[in-house]
Amino acid sequence: MISKIAQVGVYVRDQNEALRFYTEKLGFEIREHREGPGFTWIEVAPPGAQTTITLATKDLPVGDEAKIGRYTDIAFETADIKALHETYTERGVRFTKDPELQPYGKWFAAFVDQDDNEFFVFQPVD
């Protein structure tokens, strides 16, 4: 049986630039960073999270330039979406959708990384 989602991939043009964005602007941790013959493998994650994001490039075996700058289907959760929006905006993160309470009962916002990969962030309503 599958026990958890271990990692998801996000395709980026430049892994070093992406690493700076995810660690400095989003506050993620580096979970793995290793060099191999012809590739660099980088995984990042929010502090304490189980699932990691692999910062992949088109040079990996399953890589594809068309996967860069797309909707990722990745949603994050926060306890205070307005504070997160303010902090990330101050750090230079570009939001494509400002926080808004949705009819299904969660706060929702969307932002993009340095390559325009789009992510969502939710805040449950108590």
From TrEMBL:
Domain VOC: 4-124
Pfam families: Glyoxalase
SUPFAM superfamilies per UniProt: Glyoxalase/Bleomycin resistance protein/Dihydroxybiphenyl dioxygenase
Signal peptide: none
The protein's name: Bleomycin resistance protein
Organism of origin: Actinomadura spongiicola
